[in-house]
Amino acid sequence: MHVLAARPPSWSGFGIHGNWDVVWYYTVVHLRITALALALGAAVAFPLGLAGYRWRRTYPGILGVTNVLYTIPSLSLLVLLGLGFGLGLLNDRPLIVALAIYTLAILVRNLVEGLRGVPDSVKDAAAGVGYTPRRSLLAIELPLAVPAIMAGFRVAAVSTISLVSVGGVLGRGGLGFLFFEGFRRNRTSEIIAGIVASVLLAVVVDIALVLTRRVLTPWTPARAARR
Amino acid sequence: MSTFGDTIGWLTTAENWWGPTGILQRIEEHLQYSLLAVGLAAIIALPVGLVIGHTGRFEHGALGLSGAARAIPTLGLLVLLGRWYPVQVGPVIIVLAVLAIPPILANTAAGISGVDPAVRDAAQGMGMTPTQVLTRVEVPLAAPLTLAGIRSALLQVIATATIAAFAGLGGLGRFIIDGFAVRDEARVYGGSIVVAVLALVGEGLFVLAQRSARPAGLRRRRAPSPAVTVPIPHTAGGVST
Predict the structure, then answer these.
(1) Could you read off the pLDDT of A22-45 as tens digits, one per residue?
(2) pLDDT of residue A5
(3) What pLDDT digit, counting tens, does each position of A176-189 carry?
(4) Half-sphere exposure of B78 (CA within 13 A, CB side)
(5) Residue A194 dihedral angles phi and psi, to the nearest 5°
(6) In angstroms, what separates the C-alpha of B214 from chain A's closest C-alpha?
């Protein structure tokens, strides 16, 4: 990403003063890791969810696998991906893959439940006016499932943002880097800055996703019930 | 893949398992922190969840709070505590408990308030007192969901407790953090495997417990749909931090 300077700015002194550029830098890194993990997770969850919806028997199996993966502690998964699958430990790739794996449990479930929530009468009506099953899925069922899909996306996004920091243990992890560097260098303000920035980022992203859903589903009331 | 061989070697070396800094000792510490934290969380969250579910008040507030709790970077809080109160178990337990409260509270409340009103009416009609309705009908019917909440809390806490090592404490995180510090990959890798296995075993035990907690009258029916049994997904470090 070209938004970032080639060399990360470093924290100087003990207060937040003069270090806003550092916080901003790691916030952008944090957001980038989150976005890549969500994109990767969604790219995998979409076909899995459609398969679970289309072939009902596969769904418990798919759900079971994603739930077991969700159970593996993140630090473990991160280390195992980095060392075991040759992704390396000193870059963000294992972190992005680990975070993407965690989003699957949430994204797949919400996609399938959202699609299943489309009333049969609507599907019958679509078939009645000549929609092929594929067109019905793309033009009718998926759009109607958007609120549920977006609800899952919000949970996944907020969870991912709070999880990115785990990479800080290994010297990565966006704002998590500030936690662990602040710890090593005895700079409490650096840790607090990281925590506050992480919470703010989660809130901003959540609001952005709510607005996105409103744009995507103009027919729903502004305050849709959360699942 | 020498790393793989080294890891197997590390995991199969007897000295790594026994002694005051051995794997068994670390597992014990890890479970100790985790169970204390979840126990503390349960003491607070179960009665509050019960009241919220039974009265139907503050339900939105409770759900909103548990949603908002997801945004808190637990790791950051633990690191901050490690800085303020190094090598003290209490503060770490409290942060871990804070992490464990939302899933237990939200699931207990959802379980109680989700009891079919007709069932409640029937219990009343049979002459049960309000207390009996609560303890003999609502609590047992909510038990599977409550247990699901405790399960997801425990898993998150087990996962996050690895970071206790940063606060100068024990637990399995020591292998990952110390191993990383001295570039001993086998130790980092081996420690990670032990944490993952611990979490998976915990999950398995809980699935069994949940099955036996389902009231006998409901047992023969089809398993409820995942939308009902799976708790609201939570994470903090964890999904498993």
Answers:
(1) 999 999 999 999 999 999 999 999
(2) 52
(3) 999 988 988 888 99
(4) 34
(5) -65, -45
(6) 20
Check if A34 contacts B (Cβ < 8 Å): no
Task: Please write down the long-range contacts of B185-191, taking CB distance under 8 Å and 24 or more positions apart.
Answer: B185/A83, B185/B3, B185/B6, B185/B7, B186/B3, B186/B6, B186/B7, B186/B9, B186/B10, B187/B10, B188/A79, B188/A83, B189/A79, B189/A80, B189/A83, B189/A84, B189/B3, B189/B6, B189/B7, B189/B10, B190/B7, B190/B10, B190/B11, B190/B16
User: What pTM value is reported for the model?
Assistant: 0.81
Q: How many CB atoms lie within 10 A of CB B126?
A: 10
**Residue B176, burial from CB neighbour count under 10 angstroms (0-12, 13-18, 19+):** buried
d(CA B80, CA A130) in angstroms, rounded, equals 61
Query: Of A49, A48, A26, A29, nearest to A37 (Cα)?
Result: A29
Q: What residue type is B109 in one-letter code?
A: A
In whole angstroms, what is the distance from residue A146 CA to residue A110 CA?
A: 10
Both tokens of residue B57? 């008040």
Find out whether A155 and A202 touch, Cβ atoms under 8 Å.
no
Query: Which of A79, A179, A206 shows the shortest C-beta gap to B188?
Result: A79
Whether the ipTM is more than 0.85: the answer is no
Tell me how far apart the alpha carbons of residues B64 and A41 are, in angstroms, rounded to a whole number.
25
Q: Which residue of A has its CA nearest to B202?
A: A71
Q: Which two tokens stand for residue B55?
A: 């009265």
Query: Are B232 and A227 in contact, with CB atoms under 8 Å apart?
Result: no
Encoding tokens for residue B162?
């690895």
Q: Output DSSP code: residue A140.
A: I
For chain B, percent of residues with pLDDT exceeding 70: 88
Question: How far B74 CA sits from the closest chain A CA (Å)?
Answer: 8
Within 10 angstroms of residue A56's Cβ, the number of other Cβ atoms is 10
Measured CA distances, A201 to A28, A161, A213, B171 (Å) = 10, 8, 18, 31
Whose structure tokens read 């699942």? A227
Per the DSSP assignment, residues forming a β-bridge with B238 are B240
* B103, B66 contact by CB (below 8 A): yes
